[in-house]
Amino acid sequence: MISELWKRVLLVFSRREPEELDDELRFHLEQSVERNVATGMTTEEARRQAMIEFGGVERTRERCYEQQPGWWWGTVIQDVRYALRGFRRNPVFTFAVIATLAVGIGATTAIFSVVDRILFRSLPYAHDTSLVSVGLTAPIIPEEFMLGGSYYEWRDNQKPFDAFTSETGVNDCDLTERNPAHLSCASVEQNFLPTLGIAPILGRNFLPEEDRPKGPKVALISYGIWLTHYGLDSGVLNRLIDIDGVQVRVIGVLPKDFEMPALEQADIVVPQALDEAQQRKAEPGRVMYAFARLKPGITSEQAQAELQPVFNYSLNLAPPQFRKEVHLRVRSIRDRQMHDVRLAAWVLLGAVLAVLLIACANVTSLLMARAAQRECELAVRSVLGASRARLVRQRLTEMFLLSMAGAAAGLMLAQILLRLFIPLAPTGIPSLEHAHLDLRIVLFTVIVSVVCGALFGVLPALQRPSAVALAARTANSGARAVARRCLVVGQIAVSMVLLAGAALLTRSFSSIERQNIGMETRGVLSTRVALPQYRYTTAQQRMEFYLKAEAALRRLPGVSTVGMSNWLPPAETHESQIFNNISVAGKPRSTDGTGGMVTWRWVTPDYFKALNIPIVRGQGFTEDERRSNEHYLVVSSLLATRLFGEADPIGQHVQPVPQDPWYTVVGVAANVKNGGLSGADEPEFYRLRRSIAEDWTPWNAIVLKTSLAPSAVAPWVRAQIAQIDPTLPIDVETLSESVGKLTDRPRFETALLGFFAFCGLLMAVIGLYGVIAFVATQRTQEIGVRMALGATRLNVLRLIAGEGVRLIAVGGVLGLGAALTASQMLRSLLFNVGPYDPLSYAAVALLLVLVALIATLIPARAAMKIEPVVALRYE
């Protein structure tokens, strides 16, 4: 039975032996001759008529093959073998096509594997498209939030959601077991995980009674903590662990891909345990972040409209001057997570797709040139009986093989690119560390390669062999020449768009790096110390630690100044206060909105000296003021202008926060960048951190001005702090390094777009060179005739170079128009540079023209050296 089945398979996937088929065809032909002779024809006439009736032998043989089951498989095998032989005969062409495709497909695959998780891949929640973030937006908090005084009213009276939940943020915590660790703990409502559609992989979720102020202390641990601290031991369930010195029972393990909706790192999740009755009465109550699951068929816009009544109710509870600056927002979880990187992801994806298009255009041009060289061969095959469909199928087979080879090489290049730029990428790009070539990405690569094969293969494959090709090696085709010129024009235009985008981002990045941030970073060391609250339970303990650390660090060799603050500029993390909440003695408080935000910091007297922040009026804080019980304030120049106008701020009395004591202004400091390197600066005031326990918080940033090499001082800093408390983790870095990290992301985006622009320009120039060289070759005889009739070499140079100049001009003009339109997308990514920056476009145009002219002049110069006699004998 197996033998019979094997014979049938061989019958389907094999062609008959040529000798057997030829014998059969010869038999039928002789039978036809005999019948004609029997009718009275001569032998010669009978054979001639039989041949006419029988048709072409080759075509008849093909028709016979087509009658066999599985004939197409043998044809495909034959086409593949023929294509491989052709590639072997022309290795330079084969390598050029595969290398070009590898660059285009590899770059596209690498970037797609990154942006796939940002733009397309499902989030790790059940039915993630129905999850939304809900809340208020106001100047005081950048993301939507809710307040305990109104959250429960919203939860009870909302209609568009199937579930409504909240979390109160992620904070530092310490695992104080045998293997202690500094972790992050998230506090969530009891129905938080069910709302997101997440179930623990081990254990259970929180119970309602565990989410109460005096409920049992329980926790869910992350998969990473389960792996690193407990070795995936299932016995971790019901185990008591110490978190910040408190015994907590582990009731479950979170999935490996668990992530908080706002992408905070959460090692341990605990119930938020809020007193609901107390929160309902509070004004304003605890800051919370709310998330909900939409009912089927409800959109975010519809949900926002349906929430308007409860929003209006909550708005009426806010002070009248703030109401116009508070708004309702309902948006998808993906939008909340990715809104600040989505544009950059689309820009990068568009850039690599543009590079892919340029690669396809280059390959198409190469194939059209090769088709011109093979025209004689194809014409002969057509005369011998090959049908148009068979010739098209043969060429499409060649293109499919090339595209698959390009895809394989592209996958290898993509893996190399990922291994290169993922370690170099900055932090803050969501899911970048998870980017890899999985089955989804491989499938995408295959689809891209097939699309590329269709893009660059159809046009050359559909070209019909001309009869004149039988008498010459090539036959000029006007349509083919126009097509190749159009491809080059398109390549130049797309390259112009890529180069313009890269130039704008480069100018923007240069502006970020060159700006004055208002302080000195060279020779300054910084370290951040966070005291665990379970051990430093009182403000007095915290103050004693920091005062000891300050005194110890002052004694280090080469250290001239030691200052402290709760946060260091120019990072975006800081304390903020509503401007119109600040009171000035003798002036009424403004009731016109919030007035924007004001940054503030706790600082020690030497803070300004350590960072070399100038005091432009009055003086900074002194040690005598530090030891007093009075409250002193230093304001920035921007805040001084807004608060006091032309009046002298020194000696003025200010209440920075309602219900707080009144402060005396003793100085005005120069403005310092405090909203990140590219963010808007806010007015700022500095509170003196006195030698009084109530002024000290658990966390502090310490800055040291040193005349020695920072690398030499850093170990001493760690050693001094370790002598006070050896359990504290200490990271020491120069302030230049910490400020430089803020430029990592714009630098990374600029470098990537610049790389793709360079690849696009290189391939466009190669395409231009190929077209001009092909034109020069095609016009060899014409050049010989012109030179024989008196044309000079300069005339020949002008003739050939003029072709390239026209292509450059048309492509440049089209590209400039497209670049001016596309640059609008980059507006939010630019800093101190407009999307129509003339210097950027002038530099791009000059670069493109110079490089393209070089690519044009090389084949043009070769053409002008042609000898007339050789040219006239060409072909």
Q: How would you characterize this protein structure?
A:
The chain has 875 residues and is an alpha+beta fold. Helices cover 52% and strands 16% of the residues. A hairpin with a 2-residue loop joins strand 7 (240-243) and strand 8. Helix 2 (18-38) crosses helix 3, helix 5 (71-89) packs across helix 15 and helix 24 packs parallel to helix 27.
Structural class computed from helices and strand pairing: alpha+beta
CA gyration radius, whole angstroms: 38 Å
Fraction of residues in helix: 40-55%
What global shape is seen?
Answer: elongated
**Poorly predicted residue ranges:** 5-16, 472-476
- What's the number of extended β-strand segments? 23
- N- to C-terminal distance: 62 Å
Percent of residues in β-strands: 15-25%
Mean pLDDT across the residues is 81
- Biggest sheet features: 11 strands, mixed
Number of helices: 28
